[in-house]
Amino acid sequence: MKSETITEVKSGLYQIRLPIPIRSLGYVFVYFAKNGDHSLLIDTGWPSEECFNTLKESLSEIGSQPNQIEQIVVSHLHPDHFGLAEQIKEMNRDSKLIMHQADASLILDRYGDYRGFTKELHDWLAEHGAPSDELKAMIEASSEMLNFFRPPKPNLIVSGGESVKVGEEWSFEVVPTPGHTIGTVSLYDRNGSKILFSGDHILPTITPNVSLGPFYRGDPLDDYLDSLDTVDRLDAETVLPSHEYIFSDLHKRVQEIKNHHRERLNECLSVLENYNQGKVSMSGYQIASKLHWYSGMWEKLGAWERRAALMETLAHLEYLKRKGKVTEISELNEDGKPRVEYALVGASC
């Protein structure tokens, strides 16, 4: 089966293309597995009427309906992946909504007050040099989501290694792959098909965003690189991503992404060495503005894209800090608010 929105990957396993209002992507792929009366939806799409209607029409073409979905796996806590989860779950009270415990804990602890979450995030970005006018635009971009934001409420929490079964045909192993978010999971069918659902963890040409933020403490880039090693050890033959297209040769793609991050780390060091304008340290924002970005030159990036770029830069700087390449300098501005900057280890005036 192949239509405008549906591709049959394998008998009983379908890729469904759903529209999302993210300019740089345009759509997200969700996946639907069916065996007899049993079914699984992997990710749900954006919380909009257009997205829900597209999903409903696609499922109808396959021979199913949203209220018949038995299980939903949310790969990670981003709205193009969990957006319709609650709406679908409410249509079938017996359905299971499955998420990793690390992302689920963020819902319970932080997302109940989304306004508080966005304020804390943007205060944190201000510490890292984001100008006040851009912060205002970033907050406005986030506030648009408040009109329809519905955090998922999983009723089955996983930590990794569990099997998600769909009748007698499918048994997907939950593979923790943190980095893109702290609780990102992939699904792998070890039996027969050797299919890996990679979500946003691995895409065929785009390098997924890996961000440091106030709610992902630790070293997200190191987590992500470890997660690449995790999937590289799998004997996967077909990779089902959330964007772009289905691909094979997982091992080659893993190496390409690793090379990208090596280059980005070296680029951060080069910026600190060559663009500091005689100063010892630079803010994360200043460093991000000098890097090369997939979606275009810094001057052409929108508020949402600049926020993602800044947070990804901070993830690389955190990695370099933990490797002893850069040092973090925390001070107070004249108004008493904290300011964080970075310098090469051993740099002096």
Sheet with the most strands?
7 strands, mixed
Number of strands: 15
Q: Give the oligomeric state.
A: single chain
Helix coverage percent of residues?
A: 25-40%
CATH class of the largest domain: Alpha Beta
Secondary-structure arrangement, i.e. CATH architecture of the largest domain: 4-Layer Sandwich
Radius of gyration: 21 Å
CATH fourth-tier homologous superfamily of the largest domain: Ribonuclease Z/Hydroxyacylglutathione hydrolase-like
Structural class by helix and strand composition: alpha/beta
Instruction: Determine the CATH topology of the largest domain.
Output: Metallo-beta-lactamase, Chain A
Overview in brief:
The chain has helices at residues 49-62, 79-82, 85-91, 101-109, 114-127, 132-143, 220-232, 250-274, 284-288, 303-322, and strands at 6-10, 13-19, 27-35, 38-42, 71-73, 96-100, 156-158, 163-166, 170-176, 185-189, 195-199, 238-241, 282-283, 326-332, 338-344. The chain is of the alpha/beta class and 349 residues long. It has two domains: 6-109 and 147-258, Ribonuclease Z/Hydroxyacylglutathione hydrolase-like (Metallo-beta-lactamase, Chain A), CATH 3.60.15.10; 267-344, Winged helix-like DNA-binding domain superfamily/Winged helix DNA-binding domain (Arc Repressor Mutant, subunit A, Orthogonal Bundle).
